[in-house]
Amino acid sequence: MNSTQFWVGALVPPFIKWVNPYLKRFFKLSEFDSETKKRVSSKQYPSYFGFLYSLWVISLLSSGFITLLWFMIFGQPLFPDKSYAVPVFLGLINMIGVWFIAGAILDLLFWQISSENFRDYVILRQIKSGWGFDINQQIATLVKIGIVYYIITLPLTLYLLVG
Questions:
Q1: What residues does 133 pair with on adjacent strands?
Q2: Whole-angstrom Cα distance, residue 135 to residue 32?
Q3: How far from chain centre, in Å, is Cα 155?
Q4: Which of 23, 56, 66, 68 has the greatest count of CB atoms below 10 A from its CB?
Q5: How many angstroms from the chain centroid is the CA of residue 158?
Q6: 129: three-class secondary structure by DSSP
Q7: d(CA 5, CA 159)
Q8: pLDDT per residue as tens digits for the range 82-141
Q9: CA distances for 153 relative to 95, 96, 99, angstroms
């Protein structure tokens, strides 16, 4: 394990736990009620649900990495007068933005096509991870965070494109 993996693993989970109550209050997210928590925790789920949930998460993460790779591969021909660092930084900026906005769209799509039993499994996994909020509210929150993120990074993006 290199030091980057160590520090990401050591800092990200506590950061998520620390920011969780602030996001809950700021975006007025409602947690699942005790009846829902009891219902989803008392059910038995097929073992392949874990695999399907992993595919869900991998598809969310890969959307951002695909964006980064696209900028790294096709960015230099798009910006021939710029150094290679420009498309890489644009790719990193857009990777995070895609995780928010495209991730919300993928969440909505996967949520809509899922069966009720699999939705309950997703709710259970969300509760176990400490993010037990209504999925539709999570999707709306991700879109809002994504829009704010792009507004905040717009000056940096313009600097990279123009400067």
A1: 31
A2: 10
A3: 23
A4: 68
A5: 24
A6: coil
A7: 30
A8: 899 899 999 999 999 999 999 999 999 999 999 999 999 999 998 888 777 888 998 999
A9: 12, 11, 15
User: Which of 131, 134, 136, 143 has the alpha carbon at shortest distance from 104?
Assistant: 143
CA 70 to chain centre: 19
Instruction: Take residue 121 and report the two structure tokens written for it.
Output: 């499994």
What is the sign of the dihedral through the CA atoms of 61, 67, 70 and 75? negative
Structure tokens given for 43: 């059910």
In this structure, what token pair is assigned to residue 19?
Answer: 């920011």
Task: Report the C-alpha gap between 48 and 110 in whole angstroms.
Answer: 16
Using CA atoms, how far apart are residues 100 and 142, in angstroms rounded to an integer?
5
Quick one: residue 84, left, alpha or beta (phi over 0 = left, psi -120 to 50 = alpha)?
alpha
Quickly state the pLDDT bin for 3 (edges 50, 70, 90).
Answer: low
Residue written as tokens 């909505």? 108
- Distance of alpha carbon 20 from alpha carbon 13, whole angstroms: 11
Tokens of 76: 């230099």
